[in-house]
Amino acid sequence: MIAQNTKIPVTVITGFLGAGKTTLVRHLLANAGGKRIALIINEFGDIGVDKSILAGCGDETCREEDMIELANGCICCTVADDFIPTMKALLARTDRPDHIVVETSGLALPQPLIRAFNWPEIKAEMTVDGVVTMVDAAALSEGRFASNEAALAEQRAADEMLDHETPLGELFEDQLIAADLIILNKTDLVSPEALAGVEARIREEMRQGTGLVRAANGQVDVKALLGLGIGSESDLEGRQSHHEAEHGGETHEHDDFDSFSLHLPSIKGRDALLEAIGTAIGTHDILRLKGFAALPGSPSRLAIQAVGPRVTAWFDRPWEADEARETALVVIGQSPLDRIAITRCLEQAAA
Ligand SMILES: Nc1nc2c(ncn2[C@@H]2O[C@H](COP(=O)(O)OP(=O)(O)OP(=O)(O)O)[C@@H](O)[C@H]2O)c(=O)[nH]1
């Protein structure tokens, strides 16, 4: 029998779209203190934005072959087909990692993933060191995914069958309740008073015994983060998601949300693109938009990140010689997303 202390520890990082999971992973890879880390990245679409952002940011810690992308939908729905085989493949390696970090998509429910660690082949050799939930303090204080009571009351009046909270509110609570540690991130974007209010609200909703730290740009103590030592798969009490509570663990759907990616071979310029993105976000139900842009004549690619109404863009690295220079964006929002109208809007920036 394999002793508990020889199991590979796995840190699960979850949290809503744009909360700062990839930013935390970057920090973690840069400060892993000599640990070799395998990284499982779960995100939307065929563009691989997170992997591209993380590539090369901690080569000693996480080599290219140790970065595994699961882009086939939310990880919680593909546990048997994608996640378990990936973990088994990691276990089959002769050079096993010291630690595994799983970054879920922003729409994933962590519960099915945590339970997967009770599959016999996995449980014998891996343990969940801890579930870390990132929370975007700015989004929460702006009420962006908290249940909007007025809107909800209106919806309820129109639909008597509506017995649950908003999809965003539910997902937020499911991710909170699954946590061993909550990182209240983006503290730089809110006032001390707003932060205190947001923290109080989280403390009301989180499970007893959950830790909470505040952070800006995911700057937390990596040693503590990678050594929570919880064994979360054996401590499932109280982590039940809304879906599990309401449907007894039947498979869930993500049809409240939609995502698509689009490619523009050439664009007019930075301002035109940012204006088109701003307009698309202002007029459609877009929660998250991210990707890279090729500006005419620029040797570097422009990274673009939008979380709610906040859009940022910066040159992150030069284009590589063998890379297609194009603008590629992933758009994620509440269903139904008017893909045609959003595409048309973004194409206003096309040259
Ligand atoms: N001002 C500020 N920006 C932050 C902070 N943390 C992350 N960001 C920015 O927020 C945006 C989204 O961050 P990510 O780390 O990509 O978020 P994520 O949770 O991985 O996003 P998804 O995987 O798409 O769900 C990026 O532009 C980050 O630079 C923070 O603490 N403060």
TrEMBL record:
Pfam families: cobW, CobW_C
SMART domains assigned: CobW_C (SM00833)
One GO term (biological process): cobalamin biosynthetic process
Native species: Arsenicitalea aurantiaca
Name the record gives this protein: Cobalamin biosynthesis protein CobW
GO MF annotation: an example: hydrolase activity
Compositional bias ranges of the Basic and acidic residues kind: 236-256
Domain CobW C-terminal stretches: 257-350
InterPro entries: CobW, CobW-likC_sf, CobW-like_C, CobW/HypB/UreG_nucleotide-bd, P-loop_NTPase, Zinc-reg_GTPase_activator
Protein family membership: Belongs to the SIMIBI class G3E GTPase family. ZNG1 subfamily.
